[in-house]
Amino acid sequence: MIVVAGEALIDLVPQGSGALAGLQPTLGGGPYNTAVALGRLGSPTAFCSRTSRDAFGEALLSRLRESGVDLSFVQRGAEPTTLAVATIDENGSAAYSFYVDGTADRLFSVPATLPTGTRAVSFGTCSLILEPGASAYEELMRAAAAQGLFTALDPNIRPGLIPDADAYRARFKSWLPSVSLLKLSEEDAEWLGGTPREWLSAGPSAVVITQGGDGLTAFTQNGAVYSVPGEEVDVVDTIGAGDTVNAALLHALSARDSLSPAALAGLGADSWQQLLRFAARAAAITCSRAGAEPPYASELGDF
After folding, report:
1. 3-class SS letters over 28-56
2. CB-hemisphere CA count at 13 Å for 303?
3. Low-confidence ranges of the chain (pLDDT < 50)
4. β-strand 45-52 against 2-5: which pairing, if any?
């Protein structure tokens, strides 16, 4: 079982150009997209979050069910669902503004237990910024690591939500001893400062950086660096592409029985090339369709 912990929200995606273009509600949130992608790939997956009882909340849970995701550890509340308004540039890249005051996912509390058979827990995005939920997710991350579980972190930086950048950067560094796999975009890496080698020295067994159409690069504890190019595709938008990378890496590591910090550190060149190519292929399919629509296992073939 892979547990994905974090927010579920509604992306409002423009259907044309200009500030007043019509907005299409789509299901989203970094952790949510990761959970959906894992379910579609066939990994036993549970979502650990807090969602609204409003119509958006029901729609979010419905897609998780359709994707085969366990909802036993989803908390519910009467507060509204978080909204993220997307702006898409000419390259298909998305930027966001958020409506988060008083929303349901901010009131997440630490569960007493995790699902039976949990091998890995994945964290990221808004859930690690917005209090009081952020402290609860952080506590869960540290507890999972202390139990010896594999932990994955995708900070997926949203600068507009971060009131104190220096405080967040310090908090990010404090998480690294509890992280097995750190995945981030090159934009995230630039915003955070530091280098993969500095981050690896603090705890993770590997760091994977996504570079958009240029592909992915993995840095490992033994000093190795592995890169693959991006898959060529007609990009509709990049919404959910990084989340799909998270899911593809976790799925492939699980299939290789490598969901442990030691196993991750011990992967060789061939394994890393296969993992990264699989993740790049999965992300390319997501980029070829509107919104966060990660692929099913049948669309990807072997890895």
Report:
1. ECHHHHHHHHHHHHCCCEEEEEEEECCHH
2. 26
3. none
4. parallel
Task: Assess contact for 246 and 6: CB atoms under 8 A.
Answer: no
Angle made by CA atoms 27, 31, 36, in degrees to the nearest 5? 60
200 phi/psi in degrees, rounded to 5:
-60, -35
Indicate the length of the chain as a whole number.
303
Q: Is 147 exposed, middle or buried (0-12, 13-18, 19+ CB in 10 A)?
A: exposed
Q: Where are the alpha helices (DSSP H) in 95-178?
A: 133-146, 165-175
Give the separation between CA 96 and CA 278, rounded to whole angstroms: 28
Catalytic residue among 70, 188, 237, 243: 243
Beta bridge partners of 165: none
Query: Does 270 participate in catalysis according to the annotation?
Result: no
Give the SS3 label for residue 130: coil
CA–CA distance, 225 with 176 (Å, rounded to integer): 19
Angle at which helix 133-146 crosses helix 165-175, to 10 degrees, equals 20
* Per-residue pLDDT tens digits for 128-181: 999 999 999 999 999 999 999 999 999 999 998 999 999 999 999 999 999 999
Q: Is this structure's pTM higher than 0.90?
A: yes
